[in-house]
Amino acid sequence: MSLPSFASLRRRRSAFLIAFSVIAAAVLSACSPVKVLNGLVPTDTYRFQGGIAYGRAPHQLLDVYQPLPSTQPASGARPLVVFFYGGTWTTGDRASYRFMGEALAARGALVVVPDYGLSPAFTYPAFVRDSALAVKWALDNAVRLGADPKQVFVMGHSSGGYNAAMVALDGRWLGEVGASPAQLAGWIGLAGPYDFLPIIDPQARVAFNWPDTPRDSQPLAHVTSESPRALLMAASKDDLVYPDRNTGQMAAALRAAGVPVQVRLFDDLSHVTLVGAFARPIQWLGGPVLPPVMDFLGLASVLSHKGAR
Question: For the domain 45-297, what is the CATH superfamily, name and number?
Answer without folding.
Answer: Alpha/Beta hydrolase fold, catalytic domain (3.40.50.1820)
